[in-house]
Design the sequence.
């Protein structure tokens, strides 16, 4: 029983990271119907921001987190402006290929600056509690609470504010939005800023949990977060959160009961089966195509 | 010439092309303050393109000015802020937003918050149905209710001028009459209207003036009643 509880806690931790990254994929898809394949690499840049700020500026956890989130948000907005906006009217495949290119560019630039894996300083005291047979670390508590807090904040922004309303309107019909007096480009920039800053937060927390980082760390995690978004129903914010936690849970439970090499095999098989029965994802709805 | 003689909206030699196809070929017309002006014509005559040009959604040649101000290069969202509200073709409501959210979104450019609340009440008094369905997702409304919402939304953005793209499309005759009655009411309370319609009969009945658009060019113009009585118009658009 304790073992199950312990693994559930681990699943929650991994799931929060996937969910935070998945939100960035799903938000950009929601407004631009494109997959921002550079998003996993922005997660990586977030981790490196954490490394740089913590190592050279020697700041504590909260300022490091904020600086990383702001830095990556600015980078995300710049990428949209320079690489994606000129292709807004182009076929979506072109935009997706551009995104892949931007991702490779980010990896290569980081590889030039940091040719070797780097070790991120620990920013949080190593405190653990043992309750019954379950061990909880301060880091785990922070990762889970902060992630859920950020998700609630995002959910509030999207559902309750004018900007969120505009984001949902864009995702329904981009062409009409300017006729409401809503500045389309501003809302798209805000969406990129929000999505990429959540990815950066995930990067900072991940680099605290697994402190050796390298420029390719975002590739596999990015793919998994993307799959989480698809499982939840791409374009659906709550779906991305659910998908992230499901993938986290499946992975941890597979490792808990099978050899760890089975992890990706079993996890992805389950997800593929789920998609056969719910091709639009858990919360996704088929939308009639406009003629 | 005194200020009052300037038309509210002046369109001169407007040309709109999609690739090699000219949808609008050098048309000129004007809308004066307080008028209902209609552009009538069949499918593909260039009516919707003209409206898209005015709202800044597509590039054009020629000139469009509003209150003497050249609109070239002005961002579409800013044009709404200048006072041109639009009821888009096919209503264009945001189905994933509630009725209230649709109305609220249209107030984006407005700074006068107390007035906004009064305008909600005005919209609800014109369309009581919208008030009943305030928190319903607008995608679940009937066609007629969606058209009311589209007009209500344009009212919420408080344009001094309202552009409507085929508000009668797909509506039952009784609803069409209702929408046109509301249009006249809105016009009488001070909003200038530019109405694009295939339903020439209804449009010309409410219009102060009209222009007939054929394959991208204006072929006839006159007051609403002149055009209604014109044999060419009767034959082409009113079923003889």
Sequence:
């Amino acid at each position: 029983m304790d073992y199950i509880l312990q693994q559930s806690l681990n699943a929650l931790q991994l799931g929060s990271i996937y969910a935070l990254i998945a939100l960035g994929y799903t938000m950009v898809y929601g407004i631009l119907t494109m997959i921002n394949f550079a998003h996993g690499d922005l997660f990586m840049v977030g981790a490196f921001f954490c490394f740089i700020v913590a190592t050279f500026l020697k700041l504590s956890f909260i300022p490091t987190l904020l600086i990383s989130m702001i830095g990556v948000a600015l980078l995300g907005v710049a990428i949209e402006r320079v690489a994606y906006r000129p292709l807004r009217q182009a076929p979506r495949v072109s935009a997706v290929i551009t995104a892949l290119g931007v991702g490779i560019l980010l990896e290569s630039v980081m590889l030039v600056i940091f040719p070797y894996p780097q070790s991120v300083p620990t920013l949080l005291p190593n405190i653990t509690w043992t309750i019954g047979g379950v061990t909880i670390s301060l880091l785990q508590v922070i990762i889970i609470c902060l992630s859920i807090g950020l998700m609630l904040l995002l959910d509030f922004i999207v559902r309750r504010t004018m900007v969120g309303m505009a984001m949902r309107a864009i995702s329904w019909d981009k062409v009409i939005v300017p006729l409401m007096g809503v500045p389309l480009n501003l809302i798209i920039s805000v969406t990129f800023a929000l999505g990429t800053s959540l990815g950066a937060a995930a990067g900072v927390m991940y680099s605290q949990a697994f402190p050796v980082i390298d420029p390719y760390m975002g590739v596999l995690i990015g793919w998994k977060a993307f799959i989480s978004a698809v499982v939840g129903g791409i374009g659906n914010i709550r779906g991305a959160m659910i998908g992230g936690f499901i993938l986290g849970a499946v992975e941890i439970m597979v490792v808990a009961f099978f050899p760890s090499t089975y992890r990706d095999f079993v996890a992805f098989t389950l997800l593929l089966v789920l998609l056969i029965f719910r091709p639009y994802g858990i919360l996704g709805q088929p939308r009639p195509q406009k003629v | 010439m005194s200020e009052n003689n300037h038309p509210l909206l002046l369109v001169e030699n407007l040309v709109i092309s999609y690739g090699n196809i000219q949808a609008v070929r050098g048309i000129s017309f004007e809308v004066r303050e307080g008028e209902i002006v209609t552009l009538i014509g069949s499918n593909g005559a260039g009516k919707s393109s003209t409206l898209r040009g005015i709202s800044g959604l597509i590039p054009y040649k020629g000139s469009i000015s509003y209150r003497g101000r050249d609109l070239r290069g002005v961002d579409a969202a800013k044009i709404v802020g200048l006072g041109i509200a639009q009821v888009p073709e096919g209503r264009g409501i945001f189905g994933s937003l509630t009725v209230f959210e649709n109305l609220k979104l249209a107030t984006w450019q407005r700074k006068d918050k107390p007035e906004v609340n009064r305008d909600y009440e005005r919209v609800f008094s014109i369309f009581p149905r919208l008030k009943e369905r305030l928190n319903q997702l607008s995608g679940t409304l009937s066609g007629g209710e969606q058209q009311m919402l589209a007009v209500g939304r344009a009212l919420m953005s408080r344009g001094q001028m309202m552009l409507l793209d085929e508000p009668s499309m797909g509506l039952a005759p009784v609803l069409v009459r209702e929408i046109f009655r509301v249009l006249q009411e809105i016009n009488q309370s001070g909003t200038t209207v530019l109405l694009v319609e295939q339903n020439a009969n209804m449009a010309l009945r409410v219009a102060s003036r009209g222009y007939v658009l054929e394959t991208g060019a204006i072929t006839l113009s006159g007051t609403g009643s002149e055009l209604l009585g014109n044999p060419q118009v009767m034959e082409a658009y009113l079923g003889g």
About this structure: Residues 121 and 182 of chain A are 44 Å apart (CA to CA).
